[in-house]
Amino acid sequence: MGIFSAKKTKNQYAKVTTKSKLTLDITESSQWKKCSKCNEIIYNEDLKNNLNVCPKCGNYFPLNAFERIELLIDERTFEEQDITLNSKDFLNFPMYKEKLEESIDKSRMLDAVISGSGKINGIGVNIAVMDFNFMGGSMGSVVGEKVTRILERSLEEKIPAIVVSSSGGARMQEGIVSLMQMAKTSGAVKRLNEAGIPFISVPVNPTTGGVTASFAMLGDVIITEPDALIGFAGPRVIEQTINQKLPKGFQRAEFLLEHGMIDIISERKDLKETIFRVLEKLV
């Protein structure tokens, strides 16, 4: 061995796995979305053209309230009502005002529901559509009031009512007033039922808590989308409470249909037509 020779050794550096810059750039761009189910990177325009359904695996991305109304209501027939209703921090709950302002900026809505009247293939309806982007679609005084009002208008006008729910439940920042909305909305559904006016409930992913425990599960017909999570408490909370493993698919749309908790599962592209066919039978 020469005096200038050195024994060759492998570098003992630690290897750090990182996401490629390209993947980071794509997934963080507003032009692309990554499917949480199959990890496919999807161009936003392609996703929108497919009604926010992954073209590779069929996973359902959420729709906001405006997109839902565009999907379900005939073009140029929707008239929004109760536009100016907005939540107040009457309990002086810490950070509630800031969260409201943040949600208004994020969702372009004053609260977690849009309500109004319109037509579905020519049939007049009153409709309320909840949006999970606004504080998790939580139900406070404004949400409860707007849902109740469309039910009462349907009673007065003798036309069907439709509520599309997407919610984490009652809004804790409004305390007992939020809880009261469960009774108020349920009472309005009961009056509609007694008058023989159809009420179609469309709980979509996710619909939980006080919304599930009130009007969302009181429809004459309950329609949802594939794999939607619908329940009161979350699966993990239930498992910890009862100390048992839950069945596969528990609280998902297919499980609920099998056990008689909902009536119809409809693909998103067929949802308007499905509701229309139900309305034809009930009106």
From TrEMBL:
<keyword id="KW-0862">Zinc</keyword>
<dbReference type="GO" id="GO:0008270">
    <property type="term" value="F:zinc ion binding"/>
</dbReference>
<keyword id="KW-0067">ATP-binding</keyword>
<dbReference type="GO" id="GO:0003989">
    <property type="term" value="F:acetyl-CoA carboxylase activity"/>
</dbReference>
<keyword id="KW-0275">Fatty acid biosynthesis</keyword>
<dbReference type="GO" id="GO:0006633">
    <property type="term" value="P:fatty acid biosynthetic process"/>
</dbReference>
<keyword id="KW-0479">Metal-binding</keyword>
<dbReference type="InterPro" id="IPR011762">
    <property type="entry name" value="COA_CT_N"/>
</dbReference>
<feature type="binding site">
    <location>
        <position position="57"/>
    </location>
    <ligand>
        <name>Zn(2+)</name>
    </ligand>
</feature>
<keyword id="KW-0863">Zinc-finger</keyword>
<dbReference type="GO" id="GO:0009317">
    <property type="term" value="C:acetyl-CoA carboxylase complex"/>
</dbReference>
<dbReference type="GO" id="GO:2001295">
    <property type="term" value="P:malonyl-CoA biosynthetic process"/>
</dbReference>
<dbReference type="InterPro" id="IPR041010">
    <property type="entry name" value="Znf-ACC"/>
</dbReference>
<keyword id="KW-0547">Nucleotide-binding</keyword>
<dbReference type="Pfam" id="PF01039">
    <property type="entry name" value="Carboxyl_trans"/>
</dbReference>
<feature type="binding site">
    <location>
        <position position="35"/>
    </location>
    <ligand>
        <name>Zn(2+)</name>
    </ligand>
</feature>
<comment type="subunit">
    <text>Acetyl-CoA carboxylase is a heterohexamer composed of biotin carboxyl carrier protein (AccB), biotin carboxylase (AccC) and two subunits each of ACCase subunit alpha (AccA) and ACCase subunit beta (AccD).</text>
</comment>
<keyword id="KW-0808">Transferase</keyword>
<keyword id="KW-0963">Cytoplasm</keyword>
<dbReference type="InterPro" id="IPR000438">
    <property type="entry name" value="Acetyl_CoA_COase_Trfase_b_su"/>
</dbReference>
<feature type="binding site">
    <location>
        <position position="54"/>
    </location>
    <ligand>
        <name>Zn(2+)</name>
    </ligand>
</feature>
<feature type="binding site">
    <location>
        <position position="38"/>
    </location>
    <ligand>
        <name>Zn(2+)</name>
    </ligand>
</feature>
<comment type="similarity">
    <text>Belongs to the AccD/PCCB family.</text>
</comment>
<dbReference type="GO" id="GO:0005524">
    <property type="term" value="F:ATP binding"/>
</dbReference>
<keyword id="KW-0444">Lipid biosynthesis</keyword>
<dbReference type="InterPro" id="IPR029045">
    <property type="entry name" value="ClpP/crotonase-like_dom_sf"/>
</dbReference>
<dbReference type="InterPro" id="IPR034733">
    <property type="entry name" value="AcCoA_carboxyl_beta"/>
</dbReference>
<keyword id="KW-0443">Lipid metabolism</keyword>
<comment type="pathway">
    <text>Lipid metabolism; malonyl-CoA biosynthesis; malonyl-CoA from acetyl-CoA: step 1/1.</text>
</comment>
<protein>
    <recommendedName>
        <fullName>Acetyl-coenzyme A carboxylase carboxyl transferase subunit beta</fullName>
        <ecNumber>2.1.3.15</ecNumber>
    </recommendedName>
</protein>
<comment type="function">
    <text>Component of the acetyl coenzyme A carboxylase (ACC) complex. Biotin carboxylase (BC) catalyzes the carboxylation of biotin on its carrier protein (BCCP) and then the CO(2) group is transferred by the transcarboxylase to acetyl-CoA to form malonyl-CoA.</text>
</comment>
<dbReference type="GO" id="GO:0016743">
    <property type="term" value="F:carboxyl- or carbamoyltransferase activity"/>
</dbReference>
<feature type="domain" description="CoA carboxyltransferase N-terminal">
    <location>
        <begin position="31"/>
        <end position="283"/>
    </location>
</feature>
<feature type="zinc finger region" description="C4-type">
    <location>
        <begin position="35"/>
        <end position="57"/>
    </location>
</feature>
<keyword id="KW-0276">Fatty acid metabolism</keyword>
<dbReference type="Pfam" id="PF17848">
    <property type="entry name" value="Zn_ribbon_ACC"/>
</dbReference>
